[in-house]
Amino acid sequence: MAFRFNTRRICTGKLWSPPTSLNGSRTSKVTPGWQRCRSVASTASAEKVLFPGALNSEFTDTLEFIRPANQKAIPTFRVLNQYGEVLDKEAGVDTEDGEALELYQNMVRLSIFDLLMFEAQRQGRLSFYMVSAGEEGIAIGSASALSPTDVVFCQYRESGVYMQRGFTLDQFMNQLFANSKDAGLGRNMPVHYGSKELNIHTISSTLATQLPHAAGAAYALKLQNQQQPEVPPRVAVCFFGEGAASEGDFHAALNIAATRQVPAIFICRNNGYAISTPTSDQYRGDGIASRAAGYGIDTLRVDGNDIFAVRRATKEARRLALEDGGRPILIEMMAYRVGHHSTSDDSFAYRQKVEVEDWKRRDNPITRLRKWLEGRGLWSEAQEKDLRSSSRKEVLKAFEKAEKEKLPPIKHAFSGVYEHLTQEQRMHVVELKDILKRYPKEYDVDQHEGGASSLDQLLDEKR
Ligand SMILES: Cc1ncc(C[n+]2csc(CCOP(=O)(O)OP(=O)(O)O)c2C)c(N)n1
Ligand SMILES: [Mg+2]
C-alpha cells in the first residue's frame, strides 16, 4: 500500500455544533457554513473534496469548460407586458389603485421636471443637468418599496428616488441653483443632491465610490440590527449604472458585502450606455446580474419599464436581505437611456436618432403604467392634461423662486473643512479678500449673501 488518504473529517455540517459561551450555555450567534469549513477534508470514497477555496465541488472525469455563450441568459422578470396587461392573473399586482395612481403621477412629474431643467440649461439658466428619461420606473418604483429608514446611496440619475422619498421641488431647485438655501451650501455641481432627513447620502460623481460606502454602511446596519433588536431592521440600498460596474470599487464592494453577509441591496440600472460606450464594448458576459452570482450573491434581472415588477423585486430583495442576520442582493434593472448622458453630451454623435425614437415608441415605464391604469378605468386624457399642466406650473414656480435667491455666503468656500480655520486657510481668505477688492468688475460679490463681509466674519471667528 503506497498511500493512504487522510480520513480525518475536520469540518462537516453534521459534526459542527453552535459555539457555546464561556459558562457553557448556547449562544445565539450561529457561524455560517462558509466560515466553518476552512481545511481540506475527505474520505477515500468521497465524491468531493472540501478544498478550502471551493466547497461542495464534485469530481468529474469529463473535461468540459463552462462556456457562458452556451448558457441561457438570465431571464427578465415582468409583471406587465408592453400593453399594460398583467401576465400572471393569479398573482396580479401588489399595489392598491390609489398607490398606482400616485406612482404614475410621480413619474410624470419627474419627466416634466427633467424636461424643463434640461431646457433651462440650454437657455443658460442652469450650468448642468442630467435627465432620467426612460428610467423613472426604476427610481420611483424601487424607492416606493423601501422603508424610509433604509439608507440610500445614489449615482446621479436617480432623482426619482429623492422625489418619491419626499425631496421637495424647492429642495431640488435650491441645489440646482447652488443658492443660499441649498443644504450643500453651493459646494456641489447641480444634480448632486443629498438629504440627511431622508437618509440619502450626497451624490458623488466619482463613479462607483458609492458602492463600497454602501457595503460599509450595510455592515454597520448589520451590527446595529443585532445590537438593537427592538428597532425595526434596516438595509443599505445602492444604485449604480452598468458602466460604474466596470470600476474596481464595484468588485470590492460586492466581495466584502458577500463575505460579511451584510443587508445591502445593490440596484444596477442597466441603460445600455456609459456616456458613449455601449454595453457591447463594456462587457462580454450576461450583463451585471451574472457577476453577482460569481460573488455568491443572490441576483435577479428585472424589466425596468415595468414599475410593478420593480416594486415586487425590491420588496422581495429587502425581505431576503434581512433574512438570517443579513445578506446582500443584487437586482439588475433593464432600461434604455432615452436622453443624452448629460447636458454636456450630444448622444447623436455616437448613436442613431432612430434607435432612440424606436425605444421611445416601443417601451417606456410611464406609458406602460398608463395603459394599465386606463385598462382599469382609472385614468383619462382629461386627467392626463390636468396633471401635465399643473406639474409644469409647480416646477416653474419653484424654479423662479430659487433663481431669485442669493448665492451662499462666500465664507462657505472655506468653512466646514476643519473645525477651525487653519493658518494656511487664513492666508487664502486674506488673499481672496484682496483679489475681490482689486477686481470689483470681475467678481460680483453682491450676488452672495452678505457680500464680501462673510470673509471678515470668518477671520474674526474665535478659535
Ligand atoms: C472614476 C470616474 N471615471 C470616469 C468618470 C466619467 N463618467 C461620468 S458618468 C460615466 C458613465 C457612467 O455610466 P453608467 O454607470 O452606466 O451610468 P449612466 O450614466 O448610464 O446612468 C463616466 C465614464 C467619472 N465620473 N468617474
Ligand atoms: Mg449606463
Automatic annotation (TrEMBL):
<dbReference type="InterPro" id="IPR029061">
    <property type="entry name" value="THDP-binding"/>
</dbReference>
<keyword id="KW-0479">Metal-binding</keyword>
<comment type="similarity">
    <text>Belongs to the BCKDHA family.</text>
</comment>
<feature type="domain" description="Dehydrogenase E1 component">
    <location>
        <begin position="106"/>
        <end position="410"/>
    </location>
</feature>
<protein>
    <recommendedName>
        <fullName>2-oxoisovalerate dehydrogenase subunit alpha</fullName>
        <ecNumber>1.2.4.4</ecNumber>
    </recommendedName>
</protein>
<dbReference type="GO" id="GO:0046872">
    <property type="term" value="F:metal ion binding"/>
</dbReference>
<keyword id="KW-0809">Transit peptide</keyword>
<dbReference type="GO" id="GO:0009083">
    <property type="term" value="P:branched-chain amino acid catabolic process"/>
</dbReference>
<dbReference type="Pfam" id="PF00676">
    <property type="entry name" value="E1_dh"/>
</dbReference>
<feature type="region of interest" description="Disordered">
    <location>
        <begin position="443"/>
        <end position="463"/>
    </location>
</feature>
<dbReference type="GO" id="GO:0005759">
    <property type="term" value="C:mitochondrial matrix"/>
</dbReference>
<keyword id="KW-0560">Oxidoreductase</keyword>
<dbReference type="InterPro" id="IPR050771">
    <property type="entry name" value="Alpha-ketoacid_DH_E1_comp"/>
</dbReference>
<keyword id="KW-0786">Thiamine pyrophosphate</keyword>
<keyword id="KW-0496">Mitochondrion</keyword>
<keyword id="KW-0630">Potassium</keyword>
<dbReference type="GO" id="GO:0003863">
    <property type="term" value="F:branched-chain 2-oxo acid dehydrogenase activity"/>
</dbReference>
<dbReference type="InterPro" id="IPR001017">
    <property type="entry name" value="DH_E1"/>
</dbReference>
<comment type="function">
    <text>The branched-chain alpha-keto dehydrogenase complex catalyzes the overall conversion of alpha-keto acids to acyl-CoA and CO(2). It contains multiple copies of three enzymatic components: branched-chain alpha-keto acid decarboxylase (E1), lipoamide acyltransferase (E2) and lipoamide dehydrogenase (E3).</text>
</comment>
